[in-house]
Amino acid sequence: MSEPYPHLLAPLDLGFTTLPNRVLMGSMHTGLEDGRKHFPAMAAYFAERARGGAALMVTGGFAPNIEGWTKPLAGTLSTSGAARRHRVVTDAVHAEGGRIALQILHTGRYGYHPFCVAPSRIKSPITPFAPRELSARGIERQIRAFVRCATLAREAGYDGVEVMGSEGYFINQFLVTHTNQRTDEWGGPYENRMRLPVEIVTRVREAVGRDFIVIYRLSMLDLIPDGSSWPEAVALAKAVTHAGATIINTGIGWHEARIPTIATSVPRGAFAWVTKRMREELRGAGITIPLVTSNRINTPEVGEQVLADGCADMVSLARPLLADPDFVAKARAGRAQDINTCIACNQACLDHAFKNELATCLVNPRAARETVLVIRAAAQRLRYAVVGAGPAGLAAATTLAERGHEVHLFEGAAQIGGQFNMARRIPGKEEFSETLRYFARRIEATGVKLHLGTRVTADRLVADKFDGVLLATGVVPRDPRIPGQDSPNVLSYVDVLLHGKPVGERVAIVGAGGIGFDVAEFLVTPPGHSPTLDLKEWLAEWGVADPVQVRGGVVRPRPSPPARKVTLLQRKAGKLGKGLGKTTGWIHRAALLMKNVEMIGGVNYERITPEGLFVTYGEQRKDGQLIECDTVVLCAGQEPLRELQAPLLAAGVPVHLIGGADEAAELDAKRAIDQGTRLAALLGSTEQFVDRRAA
Ligand code: FAD
Ligand code: NAP
Ligand code: SF4
């Protein structure tokens, strides 16, 4: 049989070593770097991904010194003692036949601590600390720290290092005048500004020898107004190649850029064209260094396509390998449909990292928990009923069945997925369908007996004498009890998203949680359309320009006109969308503002009339205002649905509540899948069940 992905799975010869395929696991900060007590967990995490076939993996960032810390006491590699502690990681990876490089990350002015340093004393908009401006001797100390860190990485058994030169971190800060206003030999003309990365790569190469991988992560598109020009980026790529880099990886966008680069609404492979252009420049100059492209490459098909199109020599996947450590092995075995696809939600990975929590993955709660969340074969085969095939029920049913239990999954609807069937209809959330495809395959593979279109009753569950019942019945929309809400001009989000009920030209949305925002996005977008599926339109909407023509690659956004006039409301005073994802909330807000959505907080809902929604403000309920609209859509939160619990308990059936059925407040798919998986990993091994068949 021919290889299913000939470009993706082709070996790559680096001269002194050959990588088995073109998949680089990109650096992803999990928090396991920030404390030696996590190193055994980090070893298991990378070993699992080495076993799954990633050609080369890059660790989360390690600072070369204190000044380079991400935050106080962040993972640092600056002593031989520290290097020895990394052995557990490199040995575990090598035992699986894998390769791993350590990322050297100096955050410069992005450091969240008072010791941060930078070329000039210019505070970043995303951190509260103004950096100390480095003297020339100070710069020399930073270079030495990079070199020492690379040498120690080699001593620790790593196969290489990645010098982090993008995303607006320390090295990047030297490259542009936005952050480098020096007048000495490290500032001014571009050859001075790029001296730092060239010096670092040259001296790292001298120190580590020829047979050690040195990846340089180069910012090809800064996405900030006065970022690097294209000729500057090309000059740097040539210079770091000459200085001894083995591979150039692509960086897209500074952290302070106001353009999304990896969120789920970013089209797949959205920035591969940038690497392609760089590759053409370098090949045109006779430079054959392998280039890695990155951002939103989450399936083998996309990876294969960008490589076949000549965009790059390798693809970088970071979050997709959190979601499925066996990505490459499944692709190689022709089982791409079995891959648990990263939906780019950021909810359990990046959002955790930014909240100082250990990262994991919404669709794979075992990610970075490999040593504690272990799915073991059950000691005895028991019979379980899982009621509800939303994320919680799907995770629980397939995990129980994987462990060897007999599982019956009952779903009232005609298809699996629960609320994900609404989420996946939101423009920009198309990826959510992948999770349902994955679970459909898991149901088949694990032998779960699926009963669709079966709104199961307590009587039936009692009669079937299950050893346990898991109630994953989800939620019902909360009733906001607004006078007039029974009129025909009022719909719930379920009517709009699931049942496709007609919605007027002017809409007021009651409730501005995640669902209110999503419904607004749905309503301002023409039916059946999504900029996420149209790269050209998406780039124009967010103002991404060709860097060859515009320095930094940013121009004025050109959003397409909204399909409706939408007003989004909440009772709380203050900014709407505060509770949205840490790293994605700003994108949802910006997207709606571009579509002229009016956002109003601090309202009281007085009544709904044929003319619209009448609201007042403040405790005095004064200053009434009619929000004129044709349709009011209720998105006022949710309540648990657990009507089966009491009769089952009364009949003596062991019952477990998971997902929304357990707790609707602050419910999301991350909690639902995590809770379902964890419970199913334990059931039957720690609990005494009444054997009802024997009774
Ligand atoms: P549900 O998904 O509600 O599933 C419950 C299932 O039980 C349903 O399929 C129902 O038909 C079935 N059921 C109920 N009673 C019975 C019965 N008696 N017999 C048989 N079947 C029964 N979360 C995120 O994390 N990120 C997001 O970006 C996100 N976006 C969303 C966008 C929208 C528009 C919506 C509506 C939700 C979104 N969510 C998101 C929330 C997420 O979908 C829910 O948190 C998650 O689906 C809850 O999972 P669950 O399994 O507990 O319940
Ligand atoms: P939610 O986030 O709890 O928001 C409910 C909204 O309704 C709030 O704006 C709330 O604001 C309002 N509200 C609450 N009680 C009300 C009442 N009695 N009358 C009128 N308004 C009321 O819930 P949701 O939007 O329904 O989302 C459900 C879950 O899905 C959430 O927990 C969310 O995490 C998840 N989800 C996540 C995403 C995501 O992108 N991560 C997207 C969609 C959904 P006021 O009380 O101020 O009016
Ligand atoms: Fe991907 Fe979401 Fe998992 Fe992060 S949490 S790896 S974005 S699916």
How would you characterize this protein structure?
The structure is a single chain. This protein has 22 helices and 27 strands. An eight-stranded parallel barrel has the order 3-4-5-8-9-10-11-12, surrounded by seven helices. Strands 15-14-13-16-27 form a five-stranded parallel sheet. A hairpin with a 2-residue loop joins strand 22 (603-609) and strand 23. Iron/sulfur cluster is lined by residues 319, 322-323, 342-349, 361-363.
Number of strands: 27
Mean of residue pLDDT values: 96
Summarize the main sheet: 8 strands, parallel, barrel
What is the helix tally?
A: 22
Taking all Cα atoms into account, the compactness measure Rg is 27 Å
- The first-to-last residue Cα distance is 54 Å
Keywords:
695 residues; alpha/beta; eight-stranded parallel beta barrel; five-stranded parallel sheet; 22 helices; 31% helix; globular; disordered C terminus; binds NADP nicotinamide-adenine-dinucleotide phosphate; binds iron/sulfur cluster
In short:
The chain is of the alpha/beta class and 695 residues long. Strand 3, helix 1 (39-51) and strand 4 (56-62) form a beta-alpha-beta unit.
List strands and helices in order, with pairings.
Layout: E1 12-13, E2 18-19, E3 23-25, H1 39-51, E4 56-62, H2 80-95, E5 100-104, E6 117-118, E7 132-133, H3 136-155, E8 160-165, H4 170-175, H5 190-193, H6 195-208, E9 213-221, H7 230-243, E10 247-252, H8 272-284, E11 291-293, H9 300-308, E12 314-317, H10 319-323, H11 327-332, H12 350-354, E13 383-387, H13 391-402, E14 406-410, H14 420-423, H15 432-446, E15 449-451, H16 458-463, E16 468-471, E17 475-477, E18 490-492, H17 493-497, E19 506-510, H18 514-524, H19 535-542, E20 565-569, H20 585-594, E21 598-600, E22 603-609, E23 612-617, E24 622-628, E25 631-634, E26 638-640, H21 645-650, E27 655-657, H22 669-682
Helix pairs in contact: 1-2, 3-6, 6-7, 13-15, 13-22, 18-20
Residues 319, 322-323, 342-349, 361-363 line the site of iron/sulfur cluster.
